Task: structure prediction
Amino acid sequence: MNDTSKFPFPPVNAAFMLPKEARDVLRRGEYYGTTAGFCLGYIQANLAVIPASEADNFEEFCRKNPGPLPLLYRSKPGDVTAPPLAEDSDVRTDLPRYLIFSHCRQVEDMRDLLGFSWEGRVSFYLGCSYSFEEALLKEGIRLSYAENKQEVSMYVTNV
Result:
């Protein structure tokens, strides 16, 4: 589990922010931790950026595995926006952090992707478990990771 003690506290009103307000906070670099508890009632997405030459294979993999990889949107090569998901979006700046992997190893932890060439890259927006936090809380289910200011449990696989 990642040590989140180095992250700033989220904005006090994070749960009640509109998605555009949250994107603005992230674009300004005011927050770079987990977005658990942000924008309750709205769908959050995870991002995977794939070389265009592998995009069809990745999309097929997502479609065959919709439980763990619910595909919300696939961009066109070089596109940094996701119009069906968010107006005025920019994938290079709208997330709190970007973990860059190469050959199955994390090689960077960045705050934006403005320095990267987007040519020949396709963005996949995948459904995120944070999207149903509000429903769990309404039913009285405690979210220990949120209470303890930790990231959700994750595991590493070689699949």
